[in-house]
Amino acid sequence: MVQSLPFLIVIIPFALLFGVVALEAGMDMAQVMGFSVLVLAGASQFTAVQLLSDNAPAFIVILSCLAVNLRMAMYSASLVPWLRGASGLQKAGVAYTLIDQSYALSIQHYERHPRLSLTQRLAYFFGTATALCIPWMVASWAGARLGSAIPDDIALDFAMPITFLAMIAPMLRTPAHLTACFVAILGALLLAGLPSGTGLLIAAPLGMAAGALVEQRTEAQAARRKQESRKQEAGR
Question: Which residue ranges does UniProt annotate as crossing the membrane (predicted)?
């Protein structure tokens, strides 16, 4: 929970901004809190509010939000090796509270401490989730309640890019990580003109594939070097 606290610097303004935007879009308090408590996904919440404001059909809103949150499927897949033995109820709790920040903190902690027990891993994850998700809900309520009092010149929309930069930078430790990052960035820039953010949905798997390819080659080279070293030792 303590390690999660720095993220509140950006989560709270972002949640305040959602409360303000949702209120301006004509939602009442129950609807605002329904989004923040039931959906609990900042980017898709903003997407939904924008589309609803544009009178988009409900199925378009749902599909767009699912597309925006598709990255959670990738997050979930990478958590499977660490949380494989969790019960169904525990997995449901992880799925509900899985956000960018809780994932990033947890996966880094698991990689640094691979000998943690399943109980310790779950405890760490739910510690991050408690410290991050509850303030999101409270700040969303505050934004909707106090939105009209927030000056227009306070740029709350800075929160999202800074949050992602803070999460990604410490994770770029290997050539595979760097390759995945920069291929995804390049793909996102080249495909930025595609509608409804679909360019990001293409760029993300491209980055993952590139990173996996580099990691596979790196591991193969390491295995060859180890095999050659053994041959040399046997020859001596």
Answer: 6-25, 122-142, 154-172, 179-204
SS3 160: helix
The CA–CA distances, whole Å, from 41 to 15, 50, 65, 99, 144 equal: 10, 14, 9, 7, 17
Separation CA 169–CA 167 (nearest Å): 6
- Domain count of the chain? 2
Lookup: tokens for 68? 């925006």
Q: What are the tens digits of pLDDT across the range 94-121?
A: 999 999 889 999 999 999 999 999 999 9
In a domain, 107, yes or no: yes
The per-residue pLDDT for range 192-207, each reduced to its tens digit, is 887 655 677 788 788 8
DSSP per residue, 92-152:
HHHHHH--HHHHHHHHHHHHH-TT--HHHHHHHHHHHHHHHHHHHHHHHHHHHHHGGGS-T
List the structure tokens of 144: 């909707």
Residue 94: which domain range?
A: 5-154
137 and 188 assigned to the same domain: no
My answer on whether 130 and 180 are in the same domain is no
